[in-house]
Each structure stands twice: as structure tokens, then as C-alpha cells.
Amino acid sequence: IFSSEEISKHNSKDNGIWVSYKDGVYDITDFVDLHPGGEKIMLASGGPIDAFWNMYAVHKTDEVLEILEQYKIGSLSPEDQKPIDLNDPFSKDPFRLPVFRINSKKPFNAEPPIELLTDSYITPNELFYVRNHLPVPEIDPDSHRISVDLGDSSIQLSLEDLKTKFKPVTITTTIQCAGNRRQEMSDFKTKGLSWGPCAIGTARWTGARMLPGVLLHVTYNHDIIPLLDGDVIIAYKMNGVDIPRDHGYPVRAIVPGYVGARNVKWLRQITVGSDESTSHWQMNDYKAFSPSTTFETANYKKAPSIQEMPVISAISVPKPGSIIDPEDGMVEVKGYAWSGGGRDIMRVDVSADGGNTWQEASLTKDDPDADDSAHCWAWTLWTAEVPVAAGKVEIICKAIDSANNCQPEWIGPIWNLRGFLTNAWHRVNVTVE
Amino acid sequence: IFSSEEISKHNSKDNGIWVSYKDGVYDITDFVDLHPGGEKIMLASGGPIDAFWNMYAVHKTDEVLEILEQYKIGSLSPEDQKPIDLNDPFSKDPFRLPVFRINSKKPFNAEPPIELLTDSYITPNELFYVRNHLPVPEIDPDSHRISVDLGDSSIQLSLEDLKTKFKPVTITTTIQCAGNRRQEMSDFKTKGLSWGPCAIGTARWTGARMLPGVLLHVTYNHDIIPLLDGDVIIAYKMNGVDIPRDHGYPVRAIVPGYVGARNVKWLRQITVGSDESTSHWQMNDYKAFSPSTTFETANYKKAPSIQEMPVISAISVPKPGSIIDPEDGMVEVKGYAWSGGGRDIMRVDVSADGGNTWQEASLTKDDPDADDSAHCWAWTLWTAEVPVAAGKVEIICKAIDSANNCQPEWIGPIWNLRGFLTNAWHRVNVTVE
């Protein structure tokens, strides 16, 4: 009905975003799966914006599409429809194992299956959960520089500098997405990438310490120390090999005990200062609110950023829905537990009778190959023998960290509109024969 | 019936403890209130042990008295009863304000009234909760020395040394007893000193830093750093005056963010090393267990010591049982919130409808007069305006700390046999007119 020219005219008037449809029927699946030469076109300032729309594919959500709906002005006539080279920015993303549970294809967000997660203390690189906001950048390791802004001056570090001018240290840390286990909050009342309990993994990261390495060059400033702990490193190896592209090749910041988002991948710039970064991800995302806060009342300026993570645990064995044949009335339960800020796991309690009685789990922790400080950055794996009755059984786990913090019993009191920090008791429902 | 000689004979045979009664009737109140010349006598190795019994008065509990009961061998004949000089070791304890709620008189354990607790950010010395295991020692400040054992050598520090050889720093910290709010666990199923929610207070402590002061003298040992944070001080002033005797005169260790018990009063010795102290209070007390652990199954060797404290909050206004005349349907609720390990309080939620809706409290924190590092050692006071319906109302508060840890909803899942770490949501029941 409308020609491209007409759309352009509309658009230049109020600077909006315009969506046109071939058939006038709004079809989200088709829209999200837009491909080169596809039928759906978005125009802004008179030209197609599909390339940008695909780049920032994180916006392909029901909410954003609903907002866009009001800007629809009509359908292009068949004559106006020409194939567009969309130049899919995700076409050069790395290969991933098909075993992943994919929560979003572009950008790629996926977690390993729960039955594999705790099979080894160190998570294999190929099974480490992937959380990308954008396409994976292609970086030339030889020309790549990390700029360290020290206020008055700056340092440019090459990958070679990092590997040769600083003593390599290996830190074993668990990295967890702020949205790990969000699915449980979504079941309650949130939207967002519905992560299961596997947006977490543990790896040995090798790199240069930021404190004795880079920061000895700057004036000692007591206030910065807590932010740049001695175990914060610029890593170039993950479990002994070059960091895979999905996980930050060629260099990544490892900030142990902090939310995954702060373990910046594809590191390019470090700024030393006392002010909080004004980046979108620091200021306007990764913040939690009270259960009564809505998108309308959320005050992102006032709310503090998510940095250190709370104590969490989850059951990896048995899987939800399993049918169990117990041995002498006992079932073996396995899982992981972790706390942020370098806090150790002191105890994991497991119950199969609604929390009336608790069995203390046996704990496996520490990586003897790591150069860590006395902090406990990596997770604890655990196993418990739990008595079970026949029938439908809910298995529950909860952990206590070395600051004696515990997990909340259910989602309700910690629910937040962005679905972050789901650390309620983990519950797995099974049938016991 | 038995003479002292006969008792002595029994005693020497199996090295037991013997209790004799004047009237053969077991009366705990009389027993606990034993005073010089009193009627109850305990003998061991042929002599009265009342002086020691009174010294270690922490044993005057139902449980210990029940154990002693089995050793009762009879009553002394009136002729054998002679007044005994008990030399009450508590007779030289300092004067305390009568306003305290006393949980134990000897040793003195008391907390200020809740309605005064949060009236000021800094707790007045005279209202700071007192937790003593023994009589308050009488220490001559001029001859007192602090011995610092460095392994190969040791340093003796006088009070004068501490005040003149080290730069004085002032740290504002909240100190909290591991048993704060134990009464709520006791109502569930624990015995012990039934602390209300006021075994907590905040003071400015002035003293010498242990890290840049004492420890620069020793070989740098990375493992020790987390234990001797830069804000750990040997304090000699509390809120600008000499530390009161009840709080550690003349010197006390201030270990911010750790359980009150580690803020050692009447400090005499510091040992630098990598092994945990083998003291009774470190090894066999101040440990928490799972709700299913009993005195019989508790393994004190395996359980870790309580060090850093979890996030907590409590309501100080209104008082439980208050009758409230709301203004425009709103009531003002006040209280405190705190977390150990230097973690800040990010948010306090208050509800008067069973947690269906939460009001975010306004927070007051930080002491501009302190020399603290970036850590947040002192509590947050808070105020919230909460809508209330007429009738019986339960007001609830819960806090989130900067590691995103939250408080558990009720006592059950955190209950432990010693009644430590009561940090469930605080609930105050009132009547709204």
C-alpha cells in the first residue's frame, strides 16, 4: 500500500521506527527469523535497518515487538519489495555443540544439560554456558591491544606483553549468569531468557594479575583495592588452551566472585578510577528490585548494580521427572553450591520430606592446580544419600556459605522484574518406585 | 545426713562433682542466686568449689544442673553447715544502667531496650549490649602489655606504645552477638541466653591498625591477609573515651564484620600464624549446625567456626504489642539492618500484609568521622511508611546486602541447637486502631 518513499516521508517527520509487512499479518516467528531476502522489512530514516536490528538482536522480544506494533503504517506493494542483503552479523559465530539447551540463537545464549554439568569439577570449555549480547567479535590477536587508562597516562598492552611481561597465574573460578535459574522466576511471573540451573560453570583461567602487574604502575589508592582484588586477572587461557571465541578470545577479565557480566569478554579497555562505569550494562541492566517494583516504578539510577553473587545451590542428579528405584530406601542426590565474593560453602542440606529432616551432603571443593589466594572462588560439588518414601517426592537442597548466609525458601520474596538472582532452594520432583 | 568428710571420701573415689542441699529440695532459683553464706554447697576433692562455680557462672543452666543432679548424695547435717566466704568474683563488676534487659546477671549479659536502640546511629557506650562469659577483669593500664607472637620472636606493646607509635585510626563498626535474637529460636526449640533483637550496637573504635602497624614487622604471608584486614585494629577508645570495662578496657581487638566473639576484649596476646586458634570459644562453641543435628550428633571438629555474620534486620519501632493510631492509613516503621564481611545494605523491604506488598525503606548509613576503607562495617538504620489495615497486624522487615544475600523467611530452616545466627525476617505484631 505504501511505497518506500512514503514510508521515508513519514519517518523523517517524527523520527520514528517503521515496520512494514508483506501480508499485513503480524507474525513474530517470521519476524524474528528474518533472513537475507526475507519478506519483513524495517525502515528508519528512509532506509532498511534490518542489519542493525539483527546486530542488536537482544531486542527481538515480545515486549519490543509490541511497542513497534503501534508504528506500523501499512504494507509495501509487491513492486517495492526487493531482496535486501541483510549481511547476517551472526554468520561468523563459532561452532557450538548441538548438546546445548539453546535459550536464544542470535545472540547465542545456551546452557549445557544438567546431567553433564557436575560430572567434572572443571567444566569443559565446550560445555561452558554461553551468554552473548551480540555477535562474537572477530579479533586479530597480533594487533589487539588492551588500553589501560590510568587517568594522567595510559598503557597499551599486547597479548605478547601480557604473556611475557607478567608472571602467569591460574585462578579457578566459577562464573555464573545473573539470570541463572530465571526459568523459576518466569514460572512465577517474569519474562526474559529462561535459563535453567546451568548458566554456571567452573574453569581454570590463566593470565596476568591486575594488582601486582598493572597497578603497581599507579599511585597506591586505598579505595581501589577492594575493586581490584589480587585475584582479578586478565586471562588469555581457559583450562590450558586459548580462550574460545564464545568466552572472550583473545583476552577476558576474570573478576572472581562477581556476576558473570563483570567478567568482561573480548577485553579492550581498562579504566582505573573511583567512579562507577556509566556503561549500559553497569547502569541500566543487571540491577535487582523489590518484588513490588514494576517496570513503571523501577528507579535504575537509585538501585545498586549486581556485583557479588549470593549463595546458591542446585540439584543435578536426579533429573526432574526421573523415576527412581531406590537402594535400601536411599537415593543418591548430587549437585553444585557456590557463593560470590570468595565465600566458601560451609554446608549443603538435602531433604526429601519437605524440609522436616535434612541430610548433610559430602562436599568436594578446591582445585589444587590453582594459584588462588585464601579466597574460595570456585564452586563446591556435593553428594548426599537421602532416605525417600515411595510415590511422588520433591527433593530439596539449600546451602550455607562462610558468611552464614542461606538461600530463601521460595521465589516469591526475591522475585524481581528482571528475573535476576534466583537462589531459592532448588527443588526437583521425581517418582520413587 | 552426710558429713563433709564422707562427701570428701566419695569424691576422691571417682573424681566426681558433689552437690549437697540443706533441705533436699532442688530449687534452681536458690541455687543460681547462691551468695556468700548461702545454704547450697558444692564440693570437689573434699573442698567447696563455689568460688570456681561462681567464676564460671556460665554453667548455671538448666542442662548443667540436671547433669549435676545425678551426683547428689544427700544433705549436710545442720552441724556441718558453716558459712563460707564465697569471695564473689563478680563483686567488682562495673556499674550498669538499670535500663538494660538482663539475660544473665553473673556473668553480666544484657541488651538495651529496643525503643532506644536505633535512636542514634552511634550506640552510646552506656547502652551498648554487654556479653560477658566471666567477671570483668581488673587490668592496670600502665603495666598491661600486649604480647604479639610472631613465631620466631615476639613483641611486647604497652598502651603507651599503641597510642604513640602508631597513627590512630577510627573505625565505625557494628558488633553483634552470635546469639542476637536467639529468643525467636528458643520459642521454636532452643535453650540458651534468650537475647532479644538488641545484642547489637555500633561504635567508633579508635586504635592502631594491625596490618600496617604490627604486621609490617613480619614476613609477608599472603594467606594471613584475609584474616588481618587493614581495618582490624587494636582499639583503646570507644566513641572517643577510654573503652569501658564491660567492653574491654584497656584494649580490645576490633575485627569488623566478624561475630562479636572475635572482637576479643581485654586483649593480652596476638599470635600470628596459619593455624586456627585451639581455644574453647573458637573450637567448641560458636558453631552452627543443620536443623536436624542434635547435641548427640553434633561434630564440633568438622563444623566450621562462625566468623563473618549473615545479613540481618530488625524492627525497633513500633514495639511488639503496640496499639497504633495510623495517620492517613500509614504507620512509620523503623529499624536496623546489617551484614558481616563489610557488605553494605542495598535495600530493606517492609510489609504489613504478610508479604503481599513491600515498601522500600529509606536508608541512613555511613559515619563521616570514620577512617574506614571502602568496606561497609557499620549498620544501616531505616525508616519506612507502610500502609496498614485496622485490626491485628504483623509488620515484617527483610534486608538485602551488597552480595545480594537475603534473610530467610522463618526460623525453621535455620534453627540450630545452639541458637546462633537468628536472621529470619523480623516480625512485630501490633494492633491498628
From TrEMBL, chains A, B:
Requisite cofactors: Mo-molybdopterin
Residue ranges annotated for the Cytochrome b5 heme-binding domain, each copy included: 1-77
Superkingdom of origin organism: Eukaryota
Pfam families: Cyt-b5 (PF00173), Mo-co_dimer (PF03404), Oxidored_molyb (PF00174)
Keyword Metal-binding: yes
Entry-linked InterPro entries: Cyt_B5-like_heme/steroid-bd, Cyt_B5-like_heme/steroid_sf, Cyt_B5_heme-BS, Ig_E-set, MoCF_OxRdtse_dimer, Mopterin_OxRdtase_euk, OxRdtase_Mopterin-bd_dom, OxRdtase_Mopterin-bd_sf
UniProt-listed GO biological process terms: sulfur compound metabolic process
Record's keyword terms, sorted: Heme, Iron, Metal-binding, Molybdenum, Oxidoreductase
EC primary class: oxidoreductase
PROSITE patterns registered for this protein in UniProt: CYTOCHROME_B5_1, CYTOCHROME_B5_2
Catalytic activity: sulfite + O2 + H2O = sulfate + H2O2
Family under the similarity heading: Belongs to the cytochrome b5 family.
Reported function: Catalyzes the oxidation of sulfite to sulfate, the terminal reaction in the oxidative degradation of sulfur-containing amino acids.
Name of the protein described by the UniProt record: Sulfite oxidase
Species of origin: Ciona savignyi (Pacific transparent sea squirt)
